[in-house]
Amino acid sequence: MNKLNRLLLVIFCLLQPTAAFAALFDEDAPLNIEIQADFSLLERERDKAADYPGMLTIGEFELPIELNVRGNNRLKKTTCKNSPLKIDFKKSDLRKQTIFHKEGDLKLVVQCKNGGVYRDYLRAEYLAYKMINAITPLSYGVRWVNVVYKTNDKTIGERPAFLVEHKKRVAKRNNADLEQPKNLPEYNDLAPVQTALIEQLQYFLGNADYSLLRSAEPGECCHNAKLVHQDAQFAPIIYDFDSSGLVATSYATPPPNLKIRSVRQRIFRGYCQSESALQAARAQILAAQETILSLVKSDQVLSKSGIKKTLRYVTESFKHFREDKIWNKNILQACR
Questions:
Q1: Are β-strands 154-164 and 52-58 bridged in parallel, bridged antiparallel, or unpaired?
Q2: Which CATH architecture has domain 175-332?
Q3: pTM score, two decimals?
């Protein structure tokens, strides 16, 4: 689009009432977008402190953005060919005319490497978020996107990805706020019911790569989790599931301090709480069984083998929650 046409489009949009879009994460239909930036520089540097200017195109609208790389293991060149990204939308009158009108910055979970296996990894992680959405509203919304990547107007790749809702949006729709503990949280600072649920969800997904209290960064809470303040308590919300047994990426390994050989092996890392809180969380997970199984069976992106693999893991997870003997041994009696 040349400068004159872009100017005319801006003037036209300013004269129109703000479009009545649904919230970005209220719908499941995939979005089609283009992102243009100096990806050769971005991938060569992979500098978390750097801002990489770019343009995001959706439909006829070109929106100025800045890209940042993020992540830890997936940011390593030995792990992923494509860096995980954060999209920071700059001020633009055109943005008000798009589905991004309420967004500031968003994580973009990208396909780690090319090929169908890595597309299945990406989709399985997306489905992990959707499974959690089916169980608790205190969870991150996600939106599948098909992305055309460009540098200097030249297409350098076309791959799927998904956007992750910002924490402030999760808090707002749950009547929570972003207040944080004055000091690093202790376990009794956390909302017991939500915490019992989150810890059992991590077991359900086979995800041991998290902490609700500490991070590898000194003085930071938490690892692959955030806290929101709700009803005078701090409630955890979780993200990043590429190291889970459900997704089972080829590069995932269990945390070295745990006595498990594979990420496919479930381990409960939760703290001991009242049995009533643990049972309530168990019931909440079991109540979503049909919804979650249907979610996997009807998926249109996973390969046939990916559907079988995911369905097998989820079915086994529900067995662990359904059968008293397994649940008592692996969760009730295994808490810390």
A1: unpaired
A2: Orthogonal Bundle (1.10)
A3: 0.93
